[in-house]
Design brief:
Blueprint lengths: L3 E6 L5 H10 L12 E3 L5 E6 L4 H7 L4 E5 H7 L3 E6 L5 E8 L14 E4 L2 H10 L5 E4 L15 E6 L3 H5 L2 E10 L1 E6 L4 H21 L1 E9 H10 L7 E4 L5 E9 L3 H10 L3 E7 L6
Parallel strand pairs: 1-3, 1-4, 7-8, 7-9
Antiparallel strand pairs: 2-3, 4-11, 5-11, 6-9, 6-10, 12-14, 12-15, 13-14
Bound molecules: adenosine-5'-triphosphate (ATP) and zinc ion.
Length: 285
């Protein structure tokens, strides 16, 4: 039977969350950092542990069938692959930064400037779109120290909080792209492997939906039930069950994490008591 080969980052900022998502899909594997390949025991999947920069190339060449990297790396490598889905973790941005003391008026300030980055293709494309002719140079590590040692006038690098920039006397002036972890595949996956990938996507979507929702159970007197049902959106409609005590009901439903506190306040005001909120492990609609 065919098995799908998934390439993930061996050690770095994407590794843990990539493995978490596979584990939450109920897939078992041995996670030894010394290994290059791990076979999953209960799903036709093999995990290849690689440097993130190499993953788009290996997937394009068919050495691996699917991969997880940051969109920044995927776009930079300019390989022919198919995007499967964004995964919602390792969110960051690729930004232009200049020495803190310098004035900034707009991208045209970069005209003729010497700019250091690990993402030359993305940056050149950005300048092309903005009609700016800048001198883009690729350097592989510690990009943020380049201006301080007079190696560059500006840099373009990954930013999440901005504290690294500040620590190096720089300020962020332009967001070149936003990025998050992305699942992608070889462009011509054979049918049998595509079927395995479809199962995997189904599981990932169930896990992601569950992460965004909570299960809620509460008690309410009969007179509050109608108001409470209007507050609770639910998947279909909330479940209402009579309690042993006369004129009291138990109501259960699913609510979105981002509306959570707002809804709880409204429920309390409407007369709900004994509110229980529970995480959902999987959500299959
Ligand atoms: P490798 O040794 O595998 O080449 P790396 O040093 O290139 O690793 P990491 O620093 O582990 O890469 O980052 C991997 C990816 O995580 C980046 O390409 C980016 O998409 C994302 N990332 C980087 N920095 C951050 C951050 N501070 N916050 C969130 N995501 C980030
Ligand atoms: Zn890398």
């Amino acid at each position: 039977m065919a098995s799908l080969r998934l390439a993930i980052q061996k050690s770095g900022r994407l590794s843990e969350k990539s493995l978490d998502i596979i584990a939450e899909c109920g897939i078992h594997f041995s996670n030894s950092s010394k290994r290059l390949v791990a076979k999953c025991s209960n799903f036709p999947l093999e995990i290849l542990y690689l440097r993130d920069d190499d993953i788009p190339g290996y997937v394009a060449d068919g050495v691996a069938d699917i991969g997880i990297v940051g969109e920044n790396v995927l776009i930079e490598k300019e390989k022919q692959v198919s995007v499967v889905k964004k995964l919602g973790f390792s969110k960051c941005r690729l930004s232009l930064a200049i020495p803190r003391g310098e004035k900034y008026h707009g991208v045209s300030d970069m005209e003729g400037k010497y700019i250091a980055t690990s993402y030359p293709n993305i940056l050149k494309q950005y300048f092309k779109e903005h009609g700016v002719k800048a001198d883009v140079h690729e350097i592989s590590g510690s990009v943020e120290i380049a201006p301080a040692i007079n190696l560059a006038d500006a840099i373009c690098d990954i930013v999440s909080t901005g504290s690294t920039l500040i620590g190096n006397g720089l300020k962020e002036v332009e967001v070149v792209m936003r990025s998050e972890a992305i699942l992608f595949s070889t462009s011509n996956l054979e049918a049998e492997k595509q079927a395995i990938l479809d199962q995997l996507i189904f599981r990932i979507e169930s896990v992601n939906k569950a992460r965004k929702n909570k299960y809620i159970v509460l008690n309410a007197p009969e007179r509050s039930v109608d108001t409470i049902l209007q507050i609770l959106p639910g998947m279909k409609s909330p479940t209402v069950t009579p309690l042993a005590e006369d004129n009291w009901y138990s109501v259960s439903s699913v609510i979105a994490e981002d509306q959570f506190w707002e809804i709880i306040e409204q429920l309390k005001a409407a007369g709900a008591e004994g509110i229980l909120v529970m995480p959902i492990e999987k959500m299959i609609l």
